[in-house]
Each structure stands twice: as structure tokens, then as C-alpha cells.
């Protein structure tokens, strides 16, 4: 029985029974048989984008800046791991809408929920959650975003937001407020403080800073952009806060072969963090450090659990909050639900931000990061119940199909394929990253030019992968990426490498 026929036969079963049936078939067959998805890529045009995609994008470009667009997609025709473009080319999607699709295109279980009264109500009657939350908002949160199996350990509170940048910015604001509250020792504001805040001047608008890491990425709004240090193109001409950034550890790969020197490099960076916090104490005290578990946009730069444990130690010693930005690493892709779970931190971070694969955005935080009064960290929507329901269903699907452990085991297979290609094409596939990080893997080409040629060569053959940093190829398959897709990826990469070598 194919998965597709079993799912239609199960239409009359309860949702739980249907999920159980699906899980069994998926476990038996792997995700190569994701129901109804194409059997492989199929590129019909001589170039990608083809003429129809080009026409759609040219037309769009008349009314807005779409120069970044790769191809135009026909979303109704996309399925599982595959997308179909305007020219009817079918692509295996290993980029996932910039790492944001988790459980597949046109996922039938999710679309069934989208057709319910509950979802229609939430989507078409969007509340201003901070002032008129639905009576069941707590229940929606507790069944999804705040579920015990999902909520990071030690973080009882949640702030829902609209995207990764707003999640981070809101977390920054919470840290600044908590920092000043601690310094002041009380929550009253005198007249001078209140009046100066209206002039953007101290003491009401104090000179404080956020510390981030060079080559990191945390978003594109004013506050988050000031902590983003990946590429000038994001930052040019935008006024920025004068905030400190320290080196990211320059590790050698494979990590397990360079443990001693990498440890030394990480200790150098930890010392830099300490020094920087001390030096900025008189200039603009550091209220918080923001860090990605794996620098993603910046080129898939890793650090060890030891580094993050040391960072936590230093932030605690110095009285500085620690925000872990899991916007890209979160929700299963690294083989654990949160990437920071692998660090075994003695004390949880103060905040963990999320977006992308969760489809809903926000941050989890400690009680200490609750502002002293309402409206201090606030906006009109404060998130979106429709997205929270979507997140709840994504989580349910991930758990019903054990997609986190599935992704961990697919990662092991993916890594061994990359390792074998690396030994045969050492200049084009080098510095493999993510051996123990599920399918969140990457490698470098010798140059940026070669990387771009490799990404284009894969695309021409119907496999979408992304670039990041200066010369990295990053893989961001969906959580339903299976053995059949892995085979197709390996064949396509090998054909591309052969052509390039
Ligand atoms: C680690 C990280 N933080 C924050 C962001 C910003 O998210 P958004 O583009 O949704 O504002 C991104 C986006 O790529 C990201 O990768």
C-alpha cells in the first residue's frame, strides 16, 4: 500500500489514528515516499529561471525590487520536498524558503487544519493580542509553542512576535529594561528620567549596548541590524548603534581532528568577550550578548558546546544577559529540537528567539526579563494566532512522525556522502560542517566563484541549495528529507562536481 492511498483511505479515521498510520508507513518506507510528492527533479528548460519565470519576475520588478528572486513558483503544484516553478520545472528543495519549511509543501494534515473553523476564525479575525486576546490563547500556546517538549528548559515565559528580527529586537529591549531595573533597584521613574527619554537622551534613554559576534546575523531592523555583522550589503547607509562585536572563533574543520587548537582559539575569543565587556563598562555597558548556535547567514560557522558553556559562565559572572538566537537553527533541523540543547548549559540562557521553521516568531525568556509595566514591550499584533495554530500543528506533526530523530539520522548519512565527495573533490568540497548537527550541514568551495558555480550547477539539474558567507554551500533540507532525496542530492552533487572539476 502506498502512503498516498493509505492516507486517502484514512480520511474517515480520527486525526490521531491517521497520524499513527502515517507514522508507521513513514517509518517503514522513509521519507522518499512522502505522499504524493514527485519521484525526482525534472528540469524542462535549458536554463533556470526559464522564460516563464523570467517574465513573472520582470513583471514583478516593475512594481517592486525583486532582483533577489531566483524563480517564481506555482505553490499549488508544490508537494513534500519538491517545488514546481512557472515553467513547470520540478526542483528538490534543499533550501526550504531560507530554512523555513519544516514538514513539507502542501502537507495534507496541516492543510486540513487550515480548513477548520478554528483556523479560519484566527486568520480572518486577527486580534491585537496584547489588548484583546482570544479566550483560548493560553490553551493554544500551551498545546504548541509552550508545550513542555518544546519550550526551552528553564524559560517559563513567551513573547510572540512577527518575524526573526522583531523577535530579537523585542528580546534586546527586554534585556535593556531588566538591566536598568537591576541597576536602579526599583521600578519607579523620576521626572528627569521620563523627560529625558522623550529627548532620546540619558538617563531615560541610557547608553547601553548589545554585544554580538563578527560575521553573525540577527536581522535587518535598526537594533537587530546593529548586531548583524555578516555582509555590508545589509548595513550600508543605515544609521547604527555604536555597539561592540568580537571575533567568532576561527575553528579548523573537521572539529574532531583539531580539538586542541580549536579549544585554544575558543578560549582566546572568550577572553575577548570578557575584555570587551570590561572595556565598554564606562562607554556603553553591555546589557546582553546575542549569539547564534551556528552562524548561519555568515557562512555556517560553528563553535563547540564548551565555547557556549564558557560564554554562559562569563555572562553570569559579568551580570550580562545571554540571548540565544535560534531563528535559523531551531525546530529540529540540527537533530535536536533546539541546537542549544547540545551544550548542556549549567544555567539556561536568559532568552531564546525563534521564527523560520516554527512559522510563528518570538522568544522564550526568564521571569526576570518581564518588563516592570505593561506596554513597555508591546506592539499591535504581538504575534498572530493563525501562525501559532500553524506552529502547534507543525509541532504535532514533527512529534507524531519523530522528525527530529529522523533528521539526526539523515544527517549522519548526509555527512558520510559529503565526506566521500570531499575526499574525491578536495578543493570543491572542503571544511565539512555539521557532522553532529542533523541535516544542518555545509561545506566550503575553494572560492566564492566556485561556490556560485556549484549552486548554479545544482539548480540547473533541479536541486535547490543555498550559499552563505563568502564561499559556503549551506544545506537546509526540510525535516521530511528522506533517503530517496538523499540519493538524488548525492547524484546531482557528484554530476555537478564532475562537470566543474
Ligand atoms: C539567525 C537569524 N536571526 C535572525 C534572522 C532574521 O529573521 P527575519 O528575516 O525573519 O527577520 C535570521 C534570518 O535569516 C537569522 O538567520
Automatic annotation (TrEMBL):
GO CC terms in record: mitochondrion
Keywords assigned by UniProt, alphabetized: Aminotransferase, Coiled coil, Pyridoxal phosphate, Transferase
An annotated GO BP: gamma-aminobutyric acid catabolic process
Entry annotated with the keyword Transferase: yes
Presence of keyword Electron transport: no
Region described as Disordered: spans on this chain: 30-50
Catalyzed reactions per annotation: 4-aminobutanoate + 2-oxoglutarate = succinate semialdehyde + L-glutamate
Regions crossing the membrane: none
InterPro entries, alphabetized: 4NH2But_aminotransferase_euk, Aminotrans_3, Aminotrans_3_PPA_site, PyrdxlP-dep_Trfase, PyrdxlP-dep_Trfase_major, PyrdxlP-dep_Trfase_small
Enzyme class, first EC level, given as a word: transferase
Family according to the record: Belongs to the class-III pyridoxal-phosphate-dependent aminotransferase family.
Name under which the protein is recorded: 4-aminobutyrate aminotransferase
Amino acid at each position: 500500500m502506498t502512503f498516498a492511498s493509505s492516507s486517502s483511505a484514512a480520511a474517515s479515521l480520527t486525526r490521531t489514528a491517521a497520524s499513527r498510520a502515517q507514522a508507521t508507513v513513514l517509518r517503514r518506507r522513509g521519507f522518499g515516499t512522502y505522499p504524493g510528492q514527485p519521484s525526482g527533479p525534472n528540469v524542462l528548460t535549458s536554463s533556470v529561471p526559464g522564460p516563464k519565470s523570467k517574465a513573472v519576475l520582470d513583471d514583478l520588478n516593475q512594481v517592486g525590487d525583486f532582483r533577489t528572486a531566483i524563480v517564481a513558483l506555482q505553490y499549488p503544484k508544490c508537494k513534500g520536498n519538491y517545488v514546481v516553478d512557472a515553467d513547470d520545472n520540478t526542483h528538490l528543495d534543499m533550501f526550504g524558503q531560507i530554512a523555513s519549511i519544516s514538514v513539507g509543501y502542501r502537507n495534507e494534515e496541516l492543510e486540513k487544519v487550515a480548513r477548520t473553523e478554528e483556523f479560519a476564525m484566527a486568520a480572518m479575525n486577527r486580534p491585537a493580542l496584547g489588548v484583546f486576546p482570544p479566550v483560548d490563547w493560553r490553551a493554544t500556546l500551551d498545546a504548541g509553542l509552550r508545550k513542555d517538549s518544546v519550550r526551552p528548559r528553564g524559560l517559563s515565559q513567551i513573547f510572540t512576535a512577527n518575524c526573526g528580527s522583531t523577535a530579537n529586537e523585542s528580546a534586546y529591549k527586554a534585556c535593556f529594561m531588566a538591566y536598568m531595573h537591576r541597576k536602579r533597584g526599583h521600578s519607579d521613574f523620576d521626572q528627569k528620567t521620563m523627560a529625558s527619554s522623550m529627548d532620546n537622551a540619558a538617563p531615560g534613554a541610557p547608553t547601553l549596548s548589545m554585544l554580538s559576534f563578527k560575521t553573525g546575523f540577527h536581522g535587518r531592523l535598526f537594533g537587530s541590524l546593529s548586531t548583524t555583522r555578516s555582509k555590508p550589503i545589509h548595513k550600508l547607509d543605515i544609521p547604527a548603534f555604536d555597539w561592540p562585536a568580537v571575533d567568532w572563533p576561527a575553528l579548523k574543520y573537521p572539529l574532531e581532528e583539531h580539538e586542541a587548537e580549536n579549544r585554544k582559539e575558543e578560549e582566546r575569543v572568550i577572553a575577548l568577550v570578557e575584555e570587551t565587556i570590561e572595556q565598554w563598562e564606562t562607554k556603553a555597558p553591555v546589557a546582553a550578548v546575542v549569539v547564534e548556535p551556528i552562524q548561519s547567514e555568515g557562512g555556517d560557522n560553528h563553535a563547540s558546546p564548551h565555547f557556549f558553556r564558557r560564554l554562559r559562565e562569563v555572562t553570569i559572572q559579568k551580570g550580562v544577559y545571554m540571548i540565544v538566537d535560534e531563528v535559523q537553527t531551531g525546530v529540529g533541523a540540527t537533530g535536536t529540537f533546539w541546537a542549544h540543547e547540545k551544550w548542556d548549559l549549567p544555567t539556561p540562557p536568559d532568552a531564546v528567539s525563534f521564527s523560520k521553521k516554527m512559522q510563528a516568531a518570538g522568544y522564550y525568556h526568564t521571569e526576570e526579563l518581564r518588563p516592570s509595566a505593561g506596554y513597555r514591550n508591546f506592539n499591535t499584533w504581538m504575534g498572530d494566532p493563525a501562525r501559532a495554530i500553524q506552529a502547534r500543528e507543525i509541532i504535532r506533526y514533527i512529534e507524531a512522525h519523530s522528525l527530529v530523530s529522523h533528521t539526526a539520522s539523515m544527517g549522519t548519512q548526509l555527512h558520510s556522502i559529503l565526506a566521500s565527495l570531499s575526499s574525491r573533490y578536495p578543493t570543491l568540497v572542503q571544511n565539512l560542517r555539521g557532522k553532529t548537527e542533523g541535516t544542518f550541514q555545509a561545506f566550503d568551495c575553494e572560492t566564492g566563484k566556485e561556490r556560485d558555480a556549484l549552486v548554479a550547477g545544482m539548480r540547473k539539474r533541479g536541486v535547490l541549495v543555498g550559499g552563505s558567507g563568502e564561499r559556503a554551500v549551506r544545506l537546509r533540507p526540510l525535516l521530511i528529507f528522506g533517503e530517496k532525496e538523499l540519493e538524488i542530492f548525492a547524484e546531482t552533487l557528484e554530476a555537478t562536481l564532475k562537470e566543474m572539476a
